[in-house]
Please model this.
Amino acid sequence: MAEGRLFTGKELINGNPILNCGEDEHVYPAGSSIDGNPMVKEMDFFAADNNFSKEKVCADDGVVHDLELNTRLNLSTNTSGGKSNVDDHERRTSYNDIIGNKRKVHELIHVQSELKQMHVENKRLRDMLNQMNNNYNGLKMHLATLMQIRNAKTEKDHEMINAAVKEKNHAVADEPSQNFCSSKEIIQMGLDKSDVGDSATTGREKSLDDHQAIIPGRVANKFPKFGTSMDFDQHSETVSSLIRKARVSVRARSDAYMISDGCHWRKYGQKMAKGSPFPRAYYRCTMGSSCPVRKQVQRCAEDRSILITTYEGCHNHPLPPAAEAMVSTTSAVASMLLSGPMPSADHALMNSSSILSRNSALNFATLSTSAPFPTITLDLTQSHNSSDQFQRETRGVISPNTLFPQVFGQSLHNQYSNYLGLHGSQGMQAAPNRMQNADAVSSATAAITANPNFTAALAAAIASIIDNTITRNSTDNNA
DNA sequence: CGAGTTTGACCCGCGC
DNA sequence: GCGCGGGTCAAACTCG
Ligand SMILES: [Zn+2]
Model:
């Protein structure tokens, strides 16, 4: 239901979802809804009119004639009574008024019927436009991906970025365990939360992940082994036991109460998060029979224009075209974010966030694995605010000098199929040189994610990939 | 009547 | 152990 409300006429016309789409219920009559049968409603309307015309008027073609007939009968009756010409004139005038009123009623009926037909047509066009919009987004994504692939695979750049990755990993390894929280996260903490001790000030992804990443005590409770010298296998066991589901959180500016991501969601709960005046809504994916994907939607406490959407789990069903096409890019982002530090068993998940934060170009995505819910946070609000600088930077990175890598190459297809097929045999491959692609991937993704509707699908896809990846790594390590 | 939403109750983990 | 808060459940309700 909520999803259906997103695709309202206003939304499609403006190109962006609009808050309180329920207004359409007032704008459009219930009969114009595509869910119901608009023709039935229209038929009922005419049926009522026919009843009306049976008593006073006649059906469509004979309205005027029947009225004239009745008029004559009345006149004859009245004239037999010896009325004056004045009265007769008044009667004629009143009859003319009646005729005029009947004509007006009839015209009104026609106008209303036409209006309803227009509503039906409007609804149909809206659906078409929606479909076209989805297709457009998908094609745009695909085109971007193909262009990146063309520009990719330069051995020189691979080596260069490879070295950069090693350097970053080395630097991360030298960091104290309690500094795993990325600078980006720290910045976000400072910007988004005025009260560090208070949870859920800016959304659940921060209250659970960032807060726990910042606060050592909570981290120690959640992951007591990560900061120690425990082996990676033991870490993985701990992770597998603690991790319930990976999450992707998207911060995007939107006035809509929920971002359309092509999936169908059913709301199963809503709570007032502590420290936030805005409620947090819980949704469950209803596209699949038993799809485990859930998402939380909450508005940022500091900036109500920012909508925070957190996805969790992987879909067990094919996605609509709008979401499918976006998986290409999301796969790349997820691959880069997730699989980078995994092969190095020394520091496990924790260091990934630091690695990501060190990439200057990757300024919109952060990975927080310090909680039971490894979470990628995509902050897309900056791209909308400083579009000029961002676009400039984006164009620069995506230029032919930049690479778009194997992430969009070989891994892409693996993860794409894995995402679509879900729990497929091809998990996320531990490509050794993923961080090299950080700039290009992030820039391309950021450019594409300028579309608010994309962000949700992006997050859903990444969440799905994260889940698969972590599960696979855990099982592999346990084996 | 089925699907979705609302909302209070309940469960569970965590901190004190 | 107790209280708090996040997350989920499920009955009641709404809507098409
Ligand atoms: Zn699903």
Observations:
- The longest helix of chain A spans residues 85-151.
- DSSP finds 18 helices and seven strands in chain A.
